[in-house]
Amino acid sequence: MRLTWLLIFLFTSASLWGQKQLTGIVIDQNQKPVFAANVYWKQHPQLGVVTDFDGKFSILLPTQQNPKQLLVSFIGFKTQVITWNEIKQQEKIVIQLKEENRQLKTINVTAKDPISQKFSVIRMEKIDVYLSPVASGDPLKAITFLPSSTNTDEMANPALRGSSSDKSRVILNGVPILKPVRNSQINGMGNFSLFNTEIIHKQYVYASNPPLNYGNTSAGLVEIETVQKLDQNSSQISTSLASLGFFISKKLKKESLIQLYGNWQFDDAFLNVNKHSLDLLKDFKSKDAGLNLRLKLHDNLCLNSFNYLIDEQFNVLDYMYGYQGKSIADNLRLISITNLHYTTNNGLLSLNLGLDAAKNKYHFANLFSRGLNKTIYISANYKWSTKNRHKFQFGLSEEYKYDRFHDSIPLNYYNVKTEAPNYYQKTNLNNHNTEGYIYWNYELASNFSLSTAARINLPTSKQNFYWSGQISMRYNLNKDQSFLLSGGQYHNYNTPNYYQRDYALNRSYQVAIDYDYKLERSNYHLALYCKKEHGDWKDENYHNFKDVRIAGLEFSTNHFFGPYLNFSLSNTLLKQDIQNANQWYPGSQSLDYFTKISLSFNHPGLLNLSATWIARPGLRYTPLKEVLHNPATDTWQPVLSEDINNKRYASYNNLSVNTSRILQLGKVSLIAFASITNLLNKKNQNTKQYNTDYSSSEFNYYEKRIYYFGLIWQLKGR
Predict the structure, then answer these.
(1) Among 105, 165, 402, 560, which is most exposed with the fewest C-beta within 10 angstroms?
(2) Residue 381 lies inside a defined structural domain of this protein
């Protein structure tokens, strides 16, 4: 099987050598070459290239069809569009880019971009997700390789700058999506988000100090916008070792569009190929479907509707308190988001409505749980710009959450054997979160921007009043260097789970400074941040925590060795302390280093190949102190050390590779892809588990070596 795929890649590469190419050079207004500019066909973006150090490029001509437009883009410059009539007259073309005018002159720009976009650490587009060496085409997995991501569980749920994922929020079209990951409890298989990359227009990552035009987040924020315009119709069928899916995009009248997709996930082939690496995973399956509809109702009125349904099940061997057995779960979830945007003479009025409903079941040993989760979100926002470089935005939001749990719980938390006694418990929770905010952004000069915001809640149901506030400043020292300083106070409510059934309010104080330095061939980023989080939460060992202190130092660099070869390196030093019973202990994620390295080769005429390496110390954990035996019930109760997190697991190392190849046949594209996760089959320790009487122990490991491959058939239309 591996030989077959190698032959496919070789055949694909050989086929592409025979295609015609267009050559050219990209320069700026000073006649200097522009390095690393993006050059791509509007109708065939998969054939895109980047310019070399001399601004030169060579791009394949699509076969059997003349392209309509060539696009050239680079940060700080306007996107240049060259028509086919201009191209076919020349053997070699010269393209001059013009600097982008930063001052907002039309309401269209105001409507498209978030008011806080200048203060995001990272802005990602669809192409960035596909080119990410670790994303596997998943928008949230692409975030995990960012220097600011401190995700240590191999899942896609964003964990930013030392905070838990529950304290950050993912926003889709102005509506928060809680638990945006499918099958999040599966070790090694639950690491994909709910979002299809093809529906995404832009993705903004606020690693800390999240913008207060959104609430209920005290760590970071990921803001995702769906596609607003289609350049052409397209159809896609994808198949892989574990899935089969389709995706259809179609333009409608008056700049309207519709996108429809569905996927079926199955386990037979995947488990068979990786049978020596997935000892705990027994079976999984899922079916999902999505619809994204955008209607231009009038010149200044637009309606967008996104709807998504997923039905998933899994069966995995799990461990809890000396017992190992089957963990079986299924989840049915519906997400529906509707947006109405109305452009006025002075700004943009937006109304957002979201519904998120899930019905789930879970069974492990003598623990049975049936849950129902509902979230209704509605917000109204108005944003406008003035001619003297002021921007304002204000709004109101209401988030209603309802969680119902029908549980059979072990009578003694440590006795979970199938035959052990349990009791029935019914829990109904609800929470209203009504908030209002105002956001102001002022461009004092072309190189200096200031923003400040305040957000307050309108207490209901005996809630306490609270307010959140922030201030951010961005200063561009010159065209190559910039500083971002931000700080503030933020709040969010806990998401109820098995260990904690309440909506406890959390508060955090944050300050961060980010420095960027961009050279011709290299980019450098340095960040220093500190946080103090206050709340009331429990971990899986039923420890209660009130406060967390976090301090971190990030460094990253990105270097182009040529138009196709790219190297990146990042390292994070993270200090985390937690408070329990008025005593401070090191947090599980106190890391002396968190290193991420990637080497990528992207050539449309050959192949895309990347290798990534992630290394960090093992996480801290609290060891077993003693075991108490109860002769009457013949049960064993573990007692953990009072010195919390005084042990570490072995160091974590993960080397992974992935490759893909595109074969262009007229309007049809064939994309083959393959990946090997944990190439060296490193046994990275995840948790420690014991036998029934705790007399012996062994480690449970993160994902071992995993093979994955697939093929995508894509048809482009007009």
Answers:
(1) 105
(2) yes
Closest by CA to 337, choosing from 315, 319, 352, is 352
Are residues 89 and 115 part of one domain? no
Is residue 10 in some structural domain? no
CA dihedral 16, 20, 26, 31 (to 10 degrees): 140
Which of 41, 74, 100 corresponds to the end of one domain?
Answer: 100
Backbone angles phi, psi at 82, to 5 degrees: -120, 125
State whether residue 85 is helix, strand or coil: helix
With 0-12 / 13-18 / 19 or more C-beta atoms within 10 angstroms meaning exposed / middle / buried, residue 345 is exposed
Q: Two tokens at 618?
A: 């093992």
The answer to whether residues 93 and 113 belong to one domain is no
- Separation of alpha carbons 257 and 304, rounded Å: 9
Give the whole-angstrom CA distance, residue 313 versus residue 536. Answer: 32
Is residue 9 in some structural domain? no
- pLDDT for 1 equals 44
Tokens of 97: 């880019």
Domain containing residue 96: 20-100
Within 10 angstroms of residue 523's Cβ, the number of other Cβ atoms is 16
Cα Rg of the chain (Å, integer): 26
- What's the angle, vertex CA 130, arms to CA 127 and CA 134, rounded to 5? 135
- Rounded CA gap, 221 and 202, in Å? 14
Cβ proximity of 457 and 464 under 8 Å: no
Contact indicator for 507, 534 with CB cutoff of 8 Å: yes
Is residue 585 within 8 Å of 644, Cβ to Cβ? yes
What are the DSSP calls for 141-189, one per residue?
Answer: HHHTTSTTB---SS-SS--BTT--GGGSEEEETTEEESS-EETTTSTTT
Whether residues 540 and 439 fall in one domain: yes
Instruction: Return the structure tokens found at 36.
Output: 């690393």
Alpha carbon 191 to its chain centroid, in Å, reads 10
Residue 91 is predicted with a pLDDT of 66
The CATH code of the domain that includes 35 is 2.60.40.1120
- pLDDT, tens digit (0-9, with 9 covering 90-100), for 183-220: 644 333 446 788 888 899 888 999 999 999 999 999 99
Is residue 83 left, alpha or beta, with left meaning phi > 0 and alpha meaning psi from -120 to 50?
beta
Domain assignment present for residue 13? The answer is no
pTM above 0.70, yes or no: yes
Compute the C-alpha angle 556/560/566, nearest 5°: 75
Q: What is the DSSP track for 377-441?
A: EEEEEEEEE-TTSEEEEEEEEEEEEEEEEEEEEESSTT---TTS-EEEEEEEEEEEEEEEEEEEE
Phi, psi of 673 (to 5 degrees): -140, 155
H helix or E strand, kind and range, residue 271: helix 268-273
CA atoms within 13 A on the CB side of 576: 22
The two beta strands, 221-226 and 169-172, are parallel
Same-domain pairing of 41 and 93: yes
Within this chain, do residues 84 and 155 fall inside the same structural domain, yes or no? no
Alpha carbon distance 6, 20 (integer Å): 25
Q: If residue 14 lies in a helix (H) or strand (E), which one and from where to where?
A: helix 2-17
Give the pLDDT of residue 186: 31
Give the residues of the chain that fall short of pLDDT 70. 1-20, 46, 53, 63-67, 75-76, 89, 91, 100-113, 115-121, 133, 183-191, 718
d(CA 397, CA 379): 4
